[in-house]
Write a structure and sequence with these properties.
The chain is of the alpha+beta class. The protein is built from eight helices and five strands, in the order H-H-H-E-E-H-H-E-H-E-H-E-H. The protein has two domains: 176 residues, Four Helix Bundle (Hemerythrin (Met), subunit A), CATH 1.20.120; 151 residues, 2-Layer Sandwich (60s Ribosomal Protein L30, Chain: A). Helix content is 68%, strand content 10%. Helix 1 runs antiparallel to helix 2.
Length: 331
């Protein structure tokens, strides 16, 4: 479970930091924070409820023992009461038969009767108190049992949601691996031509060197790049439950021309050209694809050698699992 939660955290964080354009960063950050907060809250609440449930069960068992002891005591009190009542009845009958006896005997009997009356009243009071206590214990026990049942049901529901979340995360992880393998097999012929497919932080990256797609300082796609993009479009045509981001990256050499203002402009225009080709010639759904430019700020290699600069000039197609279903589970 911890591994799965780390995966979704990584998915969300990477989606916020590396894969979303600036105009959506704040919105996705809020979604991520809500997701993380909901999960942490669920986890903390589950741990707290587990402890509370154990304490309540122990308290319930103690009350049950007290209740059983009280029932035994009450039964004994009732037996004593009946015994005294029978003695009182017998003495009453004896009193009547000896009414004519001497005054001393009468006084003794009256005294005994009075004593028994007092004792009988005391026993009645004790029995009534025991019955009240027994009733209170029964009510407390029933209330505690009701709380235990409600808590157990709540925990069961939370465990169900956690299991659903883990199952969805595992399914998304498998979908990412399957997609990466599918793209790798589909583009195997371009392995040494400037295209690479990697899985990182729960996402799939298809990286295309600018040397495959564009001439220096241009935004028009070369024929060999178009062929590769058609192969990518074919592999992604029926892709569901993934967000598709096309990112343009440049090196740190300033760029400016009559039609291009700077490296920001160049990175965005190249990403837009790729998206335009994928949606027109590649027949991909335009609603599923977002173009963006990252300028020079996400380099692969920070050296200033020609090889490093060439590595940094690239187009990345980033495929990120959607979080919609995970958000529904956490609501």
């Amino acid at each position: 479970m911890k591994k799965s939660i780390k995966i979704v955290a990584a998915v969300v964080m990477c989606s916020l930091i590396a894969c979303v354009p600036a105009r959506k960063l704040e919105e996705l950050q809020v979604k991520y924070d809500n997701l993380q907060g909901s999960y942490d809250g669920l986890k903390t609440l589950k741990e707290f409820n587990d402890t509370t449930l154990a304490d309540l069960k122990a308290e319930y068992d103690a009350l049950q023992q007290q209740y059983e002891a009280t029932v035994v005591d009450c039964d004994q009190q009732k037996a004593d009461f009946e015994k005294i009542q029978n003695s009182y009845k017998i003495l009453g009958e004896n009193y009547k038969s000896l009414i004519s006896s001497n005054e001393t005997t009468k006084k003794d009997l009256r005294y005994e009767l009075q004593r028994l009356d007092i004792q009988l009243d005391e026993k009645k009071s004790e029995l009534y108190a025991k019955e009240l206590k027994l009733t209170a214990k029964e009510e407390e026990s029933n209330k505690l049992k009701k709380n235990l049942d409600a808590l157990a049901l709540s925990l069961k529901e939370r465990e169900k949601r956690v299991n659903e979340l883990e199952s969805k995360l595992a399914s998304q992880e498998k979908a990412v691996k399957d997609l990466k393998n599918k793209l790798t097999e589909s583009l195997i012929g371009y392995k040494n031509s400037g295209i690479s497919v990697i899985e990182k932080d729960g996402k799939v990256y298809v990286s295309l060197d600018n040397s495959l797609l564009f001439q220096s300082g241009k935004t028009d796609i070369d024929w060999k790049g178009k062929t590769a993009l058609l192969k990518v479009a074919e592999s992604l045509m029926d892709l569901e439950d993934f967000d598709i981001m096309v990112e343009g990256h440049t090196d740190n050499v300033p760029m400016k021309s009559a039609t291009i203002k700077d490296n920001w402009d160049l990175s965005v225009l190249r990403a837009t050209s790729v998206v335009r080709y994928l949606t027109t010639e590649g027949k991909m759904d335009p609603i599923k694809i977002i173009p963006s430019g990252r300028n020079k700020y996400v380099p692969i290699n920070t050296d200033n050698t020609p090889e490093a600069l060439a590595q940094n000039r690239r187009i990345e197609i980033i495929l990120t699992p959607k979080l919609d279903q995970l958000m529904k589970i956490l609501k």
